[in-house]
Amino acid sequence: MDLLVTRKGAIRAGGGDYGIIPGSMGTGS
C-alpha cells in the first residue's frame, strides 16, 4: 500500500513525476 501513498505524494508534487518515482520503487520492490 506504500506505493499508493508515494503516488499521491508525487502527484501533489507535479503529476507527471508520479510515473517516474513509483517506477523506480516498483523495480526495487
From TrEMBL:
E.C. number(s) listed in UniProt? 6.5.1.8
Cofactor(s) listed in the protein's UniProt record:
Mn(2+)
Name the keywords, alphabetized: GTP-binding, Ligase, Manganese, Metal-binding, Nucleotide-binding, RNA repair
InterPro entries, A to Z: RtcB, RtcB-like_sf
Where do the TM regions start and end? none
Q: Name one GO molecular function term.
A: metal ion binding
Aminoacyl-tRNA synthetase among the record's keywords? no
Name assigned to this protein: 3'-phosphate/5'-hydroxy nucleic acid ligase
Q: Which organism is it from?
A: Streptomyces rapamycinicus (strain ATCC 29253 / DSM 41530 / NRRL 5491 / AYB-994) (Streptomyces hygroscopicus (strain ATCC 29253))
